[in-house]
Amino acid sequence: QVRLAESGGGLAQPGGSLRLSCHAIGINFSIYTMNWYRQAPGKEREWVAGITSSGSTNYADSAKGRFTISRDNGRRKVFLQMNSLTPDDTAVYFCNVDARGRANWGQGTQVTVAS
Asked: Would you list the DSSP string of 10-71?
């Protein structure tokens, strides 16, 4: 069974930073592309960033230049460093991996950006 557990969300001020973590179990972590998505109130879930097994990264336009995705295969974790946060970044952030024939999601971690 694939399980993803996000942590690190919370309240940040505009211009501030947060670092999200996602711990994955039940998969051979190092061979999978890992993704971060987010869902703001009343909006569709949207892809934020992805990192391949080789460490190549991709970002949504809204994340480029501000967010950095990284991974630690030894600890089976993927991270999302978020800088220069704005209220538009307020959302529940989800870790995702397509494995074992399905999309797998964590429970999400709330990020709120407000002064």
From this structure: EEE-TT--EEEEEEEESS-GGGS-EEEEEE-TTS--EEEEEE-TT--EEE-TTTTTTEEEEE
